[in-house]
Fold this sequence. Notes:
Elements: H1 5-15, H2 20-27, H3 31-38, H4 47-57, H5 61-64, H6 78-81, H7 85-93, H8 98-106, H9 110-122, H10 126-147, H11 154-161, H12 166-188, H13 201-213, H14 219-231, H15 240-250, H16 254-257, H17 265-276
Helix pairs in contact: 9-12, 13-14, 13-17
Organism: Clostridium fessum
Keywords: DNA-binding
Protein name: Transcriptional regulator
Amino acid sequence: MELSIQERLKDLRVERGLTLEQLAEQTHLSKSALGSYEGDNFKDISHYALIELAKFYEVTVDYLLGRSQTKNHPNADLADLRLSDDMIELLKSGLIDNSLLCELAVHPDFPRLMADLEIYVNGIADKQVQSANAIVDAVSATIMKQHNPGLSDPQLRQLIAAHIDDDSFCRYVIQQDINKIALDLREAHKDDFFSVPEDNPLEDFLQTVDEAASPDSDPEQAALAFICKRLKLNLKKLSEEEKKWLKKIAQKSDLLKNPNPQRGKSKISTEKRCLDVL
Length: 278
């Protein structure tokens, strides 16, 4: 989930509400160069431009290059962060996604999650819940003694239902906190390149196979159209050389080689026809 150099540069400019023209005026760098630094075809950026942009945005060069995730506090003292040795080792190990952990920690509802977790871990709510349960138990005992209702009596059932399992209740509250944060993080990254698409690639493939199998269709174009759709490429804008390389690369795809082994022979033979054109 780490941002590329292009994304970092564009985000910093957009955060300040600047156009490329305005940025060029204030940094004395050319508009075309600045645009190329943010473009998809980014190849190189001069040392001078890196230093000037880092100064202008008040960030480190390491941040612009993606070597650091710290934008505003490059020299933060670890002692001030009160991190344990185990936590520091974990963050350095690469076993977890540190960027995602940071997003989790800065989520607006994270302090609430930590507060509820602290209440559960320290047993702060136990006495309050036990006191509430004691009141419910006392009322239930009084009703049973005076009226001796059956266990199916609605009012008695309400009192029984009001009895709180403190452990289950606290864990439920924590789970609700986590669910809200997790959903927000997923929504924030739904358009990321490596996120799993909501549509089904197998269905797209089978649809392409059916199109390739029809008498009036061009199997090669149908197969290329499927590949381009998955990669969000415009087939019409690809050169013949690019199409040739795309077909060579596509031949290595496990999805195209064996999309669904359980289907019938007729479908498989049709799929093979689609692959043969590649």
